[in-house]
Amino acid sequence: TLGYRYRQAFVNGRIEINGAQTRDDIQPDQDRGYLFVEGWFGFKNDYRFTFDLQTTSDDSYLADYGLPDLDRLRSEVALERIKRDTAFRTSFIHYKTLRDSEDQDEIPSRIFDLNFQKRYFPTSVGGEVRVNVIAHAHERTSDEDVVGRDVARTTFDAEWLRSWTFATGLRADALFGASIDAFNIRHDSNFPTQATRTTPRAALTVRDPMTRREKSGATQFLEPIVQFGWTNVSDNDVPIDESTFQEFDEGNLLSLSRFPAEDRREDGATAAVGVNWARYGRGGWQALATVGQVFRADADPDFTLTSGLQGTSSDILLAGQLKTANGWSLAGRGIINGDLSFAKAELRGEWAKQGSA
Question: In whole angstroms, what is the distance from residue 332 CA to residue 327 CA?
Fold first, then answer.
């Protein structure tokens, strides 16, 4: 085996190449190897081009030689530009499965994404207007019915957000928006070839942030939150390829759709309640916690059992984080079901030490 690594930094970017070339007795008389290439380059007008390419000679090479334990190879090229009031990103992704249980022809192996967002601040009505254009397509190399399904989607989304802070400290956030999703579906007789879905939505969120200072100098923060939301999905007769796995966490507690992609949207009236708490000590210690739950007028059958979002009332979300002055941090998250036992939980620890000059 000949292994190699090459790195180079440029004025406007960098590149790194890792790979190996092998002749062995596992697969006699065959050249084996792998090649990973990654890097980025900056262009004019703040555009950034990134790439991460992965390939191997055969499905078992990485496992045979104890290299990165991957069960799929993901290659991506992307172009992006992020500004204060605009965000643009487009990418092409290719997946190559290394799993014996998967057929390469029947997985979505070619994926195209485009996301564009523009923010406006109208003086006539106040608040903020966000306009989003999203395009997505994934293809399977198989043309067989159902297992060879290909889907393309174009989404136009617009929403208006405005906040009010009252003299008592109470804060109210209003949201009104609507989206239009246009689908093109091929190689699946269970769904129409063309489908268009509209989803108007609205939400009102009320929170009451409170702080107090202890005699020790530490500061505590407490924020009860209540949100009332409504969405009306016109048509969900489209395949669910991207949102097959859902997670309930503090990041989407106040979302009007907790599906990770636009191929599925929540429908109906909802209410979310939660509490944020934090304590900031003078010596650098920090403790943060969130508790929340979601209620629905009607259960959504597309949520999985492990998501904690099934039924008309979700599991209870618990999340917390502890940071110390000497660089330690501990973060945990879990969901508690109806009998007050953890249905799912995770815990992560980290230590970072800043070097001295």
Answer: 17
Quickly list H helices, the chain: 61-64
Distance CA 11, CA 19 (A): 25
Give me the torsion for CA of 264, 265, 268, 273, rounded to 10°. Answer: 120
Quick one: which of 326, 325, 332, 335 has its CA closest to 349?
A: 332
Q: Which of 235, 238, 111, 135 is nearest to 185 (CA)?
A: 238
Q: What does the pLDDT read at residue 357?
A: 47
CB-count exposure of residue 168 (10 Å: 0-12, 13-18, 19+): exposed
* Distance (Å, whole) CA 296 – CA 303: 13
- State the Cα angle at 174 between 168 and 178, rounded to 5°: 175
Using CA atoms, how far apart are residues 115 and 113, in angstroms rounded to an integer? 7
Name the DSSP letter for residue 306: G
Strands (E), 121-245: 128-139, 150-165, 171-186, 194-207, 210-213, 219-231
Q: Give the separation between CA 229 and CA 232, rounded to whole angstroms.
A: 11
Fill in the amino acid letter for 55.
Answer: T
61-91: pLDDT as tens digits: 999 998 888 999 999 999 999 999 999 999 9
With the CA atoms of 160, 166, 172 and 173 taken in that order, what torsion angle do they form, in degrees rounded to the nearest 10? 20
Q: Mean pLDDT throughout 124-134?
A: 96
The answer to whether residue 30 scores a pLDDT higher than 80 is yes
In angstroms, the CA 75 to CA 128 distance is 36
- DSSP tag of 45: G
d(CA 251, CA 266): 16
In a 3-state reduction of DSSP, which class is residue 168? coil
